[in-house]
Amino acid sequence: MHIAMVSGSNRKDASSTKMLRYMKRKLQEQGYAVTLVDIYETPLPMYAPDEDGVHPNAARMIAAVREADGLVFATPEYHGSVSGALKNALDYLSADEVRGKPVLSVSSAGGAVGVSSLTQLQAIIRGLHGINSPEWVSIGGGHRFEGDAPADEAMRKRVGRALDTFLKLTAALKAVTATC
Questions:
Q1: From edge to edge, which strands make up the β-sheet containing 33-38?
Q2: pLDDT for position 165
Q3: H or E segment at 112?
Q4: In the chain, what is the greatest distance between 2 CA atoms, to the nearest angstrom?
Q5: φ, ψ at 96 (rounded to 5°)
Q6: How far apart, in whole angstroms, are the C-alpha atoms of residue 108 and residue 51?
Q7: What is 2-179's CATH superfamily?
Q8: Would strands 70-76 and 33-38 be described as parallel, antiparallel, or unpaired?
């Protein structure tokens, strides 16, 4: 299976991006193909549907999402919502790329948890006809990383459970799609 991840932060050392790097490594250790699109490293111009052509960075992100069996989107929580960078990236996508695919949502908040951004992200996923994973990952403000790995064992276990649920959903939906 192929998993595409999009990190929607404009910060160099964003905790949401660190979490995706950790998840990517864990998935690759299990033999999954993973593509990580880091908006900080490959910025996207503001989505403008009237413009001709698609920016090369946007085209690469769209292709990664289209080719994936499952998706992971991560956002910092800004003012109780998803980041503008992630929302802009999602505006480049359509139901053609996301429809029927499972999506794991990840949020990083300065406070205790980023539930508002996760709820809004899941609403956007429904608008794109994706299937929200029943688990999500929220990184609170006090959370630390050692490199790109969560410093806290409880968080590592939480992420493992969320990934397991997401992977089971992805495999089940891929099997159903293959028989249709």
A1: 33-38, 2-7, 70-76, 102-108, 131-139
A2: 98
A3: none
A4: 48
A5: -60, -35
A6: 32
A7: Flavodoxin domain (3.40.50.360)
A8: unpaired
Partner residues linked to 102 by β-bridges = 131
Burial label, 79 (beta-carbon count in 10 A; 0-12, 13-18, 19+): exposed
Token pair listed for 97 = 């790329």
What are the boundaries of each domain within the chain?
2-179
Using a 10 angstrom Cβ sphere, with 0-12 exposed, 13-18 middle and 19 or more buried, the burial of residue 41 is: exposed
Three-class DSSP category at 92: coil
Q: Assign 80 a pLDDT band (cuts: 50, 70, 90).
A: confident
Tell me the CA distances in angstroms from 164 to 23, 133, 156, 170, one per residue in order.
11, 10, 12, 10
The string of pLDDT tens digits covering residues 94-140 is 999 999 999 999 998 766 666 889 999 999 999 999 999 999 999 87
Q: Which two tokens stand for residue 137?
A: 């990952």
At residue 129, what is the residue type?
Answer: H
